Amino acid sequence: MFGTIQQWLNALTTPRDQQTLKSMLFPLADRYSSLVFGSAGLAIKAGGSALVKAGTAFYAIANGTLVTKAANTDMAALSGTVANAAFNVFCFDIDSAGTLTTSMGTAGATLAAVKFPPLVEKKARIGFVVINPTGTGDFVGGTTALDDGTVTPNAAYVNCTAPFDPTVILN
């Protein structure tokens, strides 16, 4: 029979070993206890809107607590500016109370150069929108419509349906 990670840690004889292993395993355990089940169907709220919505109902588990959101729920507003010709991401998370938050990454000159914002402990990452304004102006979160000519077709909606941590790179 499988035991829980906490049961395995409790079996260690020294508190120092328990704490060392706990600090190593916590990020992995957090990602598996905070994730989305199925796609939220992220999309623009409506033509001319600066908001992203969950196009479908979805379930998530955040810090071990099951939560759900209905179809057509608005994600938290985007905040921050993406300079013309740059790439960046706005990530959407949900916590165990069902509260939605948004965080912005660090822009890059290419898609591969984008840095995701840190994952927030005990929150599930619902997905993200990639922004790459290529018109004459910058993209201003909360102001610029996601289907504005400076942004489309360069706004891409990505749904996370598995544990997600783009910072985990082991060399």
Summarize the structure.
It contains 2 helices and 12 strands; from the N terminus they run H-H-E-E-E-E-E-E-E-E-E-E-E-E. The protein is of the alpha+beta class and 171 residues long.
Notes on the protein architecture:
The longest helix has 18 residues, at 15-32. The protein has a single domain (35-159), classed as Tail fiber receptor-binding protein (Trefoil), CATH 2.80.20. The protein has helices spanning 5-10, 15-32, and strands at residues 35-37, 42-44, 52-54, 58-62, 65-69, 73-74, 81-82, 88-94, 100-104, 124-131, 139-140, 155-159. With 171 residues, it is of the alpha+beta class. The protein starts with a helix and ends in a 12-residue tail after the last strand. The mean pLDDT is 89. The strands form four sheets. Strands 9-8-10-12 form a four-stranded antiparallel β-sheet, with no helix packed on it.
The fraction of residues in strands falls at 25-35%
Under CATH, the topology can be stated as: Tail fiber receptor-binding protein
Provide mean pLDDT, rounded.
89
Q: In which range does the helix fraction lie?
A: 10-25%
How would the global form be characterised? elongated
Q: What structural class should be given to the helix and strand makeup?
A: alpha+beta
Cα separation of the termini = 33 Å
| Helix run count | 2
Low-pLDDT stretches: none
Q: How many beta-strand segments?
A: 12
Please summarize the sheet with the most strands: 4 strands, antiparallel
